[in-house]
Amino acid sequence: MHQALHIFKKDLRHLRYEISLVLLFAMAFAATHLRSPHAFLNDSWLPQIFWFIGAASLVGRVVLAEAIPGDRQFWITRPYRWKSLLGAKLLFIIAFVNLPILLAQIWIVLIAGFPLGSSIPGLLWVQLLLFAFVLPFVAFATLSTNKLFQLILFALAVLLWGLASATGSGALSGVGWISGYVAFILLLASGVVILWIQYQSRRTVLSRWLAAGGVTISTVFLSTIPWTLAFALQSHLSKQNTLGTSLQVGLSHTPVETFWPAQLKPKVVLHIPVSVEGIPDGTELQPDGLAITFEGSEGRKDELNPPDCANLKRASISATAATISALCEIDPSFFQSQHGRRVTLRGTFYFTLFGNAQSQTVSLSGQPSNAPAGLQCYEDAARAGWDVYCQSAFRWPDRLVYAKLGNTTPNSFAQFVSYSPFPADLNIEPVVTRWASDYAYGPAPVVNDVTIIVEEPLAQLHRDFEARAVQLEQFVYSPVKVGSPPVRGIP
Amino acid sequence: MSDMISAIDLVKRFRSVRVLDGLNLTVPEGSVFGLAGPNGAGKTTTIKILMNILRATSGQASVLGVDSKTIGPETLAHIGYVSENQELPEWMTVGYLLAYLKPFYTTWDDARAAELIRQFDLPLDRQLRHLSRGMRMKAALASSLAYRPKLLIMDEPFSGLDPLMREDLIDSLLESAGETTILISSHDLAEIESFASHIGYLDRGRLQLSEEMTSLTARFREIEVIVDSPPLLPLDRPWPTHWLRPETAPALVRFVETHFDAERTPDEIRRLFGDVRNISASPMPLRAIFVTLARDRAKAA
To answer: Domain B3-211 adopts which CATH fold?
Structure first.
């Protein structure tokens, strides 16, 4: 420990100007919230970018201060203990990368009006994620002293950051956090092994192979996600797996007219409607994914995974029935080969039942009011219309959240909800803000308060269904059906 | 006297290039061992294997009784290492370098450090990057001698230094010799000759000879024999294998005796050439000895 502190002090002295700069960026990031703590769009992104670049550079510099690869470094002929050296580097990262962000986040959370006590799990989880994110980066930085490599490494860090964000509530699928976390853990594991090998025995060639393997496996895992596994795990984690035993799913023959963004890609897109009946009372069904296999003549098959069937839209027919529409991209050659023929469709529909609704009416003003699920909601006076904003600390809750203005239909705050069980996402910005509104196109109703409705996920389920003698031409997505979104007040 | 360094049958390959080819080396305690050889002979590779910077492809080496593959901080605390191409932390001042290194060594001697600073006239407040090559080498040496290491390994420390700087470094090495065993590699034989107690000659990855300096210089002599009529070479009698590089001129035969003995060598000459008018035996500088050996080896190859 003594030697680790000694090396740490040396690095502190060596990199004092770089450290000051990174601290300055962290302070600037915190200061941007002082001016407008509740604003949806504040200007904290710029200091965040500078902080990211500064911190990445600082990590690279501190690692290369005692470079591992090579045979000319001064330190390798001195009595450094590898545990002390590695400990010094990690201590440095905790002190000058993690700690400033922790302090900035505490400050931001406090001025945003969130209680510190309930924010502690989120604060700690972000620190853990941030440290776990930096570790592979530290490990890869030990692999070469080449400047081009370090630049590539920086690009990789940016990519990793993007990957890490996939673990969060910003993911386009409720179960996206599983693949994100698994890929993240694989990278972290390879990073830890590389760090151990590099600092203990400086076997850079072996470590480079391990790094290449770790990145490849993580990327492959992320891009070829075993959806069935992810949904099965999510289902296992859900509260009430036995819910919805009477629920039945099938191919609907009455597609829902709905609004989709225009499809510009020259692909064959099918519009698949799925009917759901027997939705339990007091629950709401939220579609998570649709996997389809078409079996055509001569044994030809086309398998579509949930990412191939995006844009799941739900239309409630009654309290217990709904139709889900999906746009699925099908293999054009398969489509051509089955033209005029009948195919068998086998599908698996993944969904979540939400329930246990809680609601709270809050007065609309520029000041945040407490709402269920730890939310704080307000109206932003700086923006026109009746945009209701809700903010959450560290992540958007794994809840369906609606805002109901007067007697209008409840409006959702987010189309996608991450079912991640963790208290935070890897995000420097600790306050997540979303809004609900569809009043921007017409005169706003005159109301002084809004009811925030929150429903929690009760069960993550899936149902298999089959339809025979299906003609694919009947389901071809036609842009003609796409219209403008309904506009309030305009007939 | 025990051995501070011992290497047995060391082989090092870089891809298909065999840089060390079965090297055997022994450095006795208390010696100043000069490892000489041409550029590319494998001196630096040998030293890096001894310091556990590189791994040998095969063979074994031990330093201070420790297998070189397992040399760790405990052993390194007793070894000083100075190399011409070592990357020093150039942002450090000389004073900070010494202060930084001090806690790494339990045997650090402040008085010795102060003495070295004074002896080398080191500017404590100047960053290493702003020092001349010679002064950087002095700073590195001071930081390696201040803890009175049992073993000092130096890789081409005099390369590119002016004569005065070399003298300063050699003086300080001689002061440390005795309590510190020194292994010094150099392609400059004249320098090594001035202070080494033992010498090893490395060529093409093999140690061609290794012995005490006094023994080496005593057994090598350039012999000139003045005869009435020079014999034609090769002779019809067997030419002794320890007589190298024979040359003839009118009334003169010249060769290098590699096992000179003041009594035996003249007798041997007379047995081969009959009556001779004069025999002279001149001591040879180290450089001439190694040139002789290298050319003989090239001829044999």
So the answer is: Rossmann fold (3.40.50)
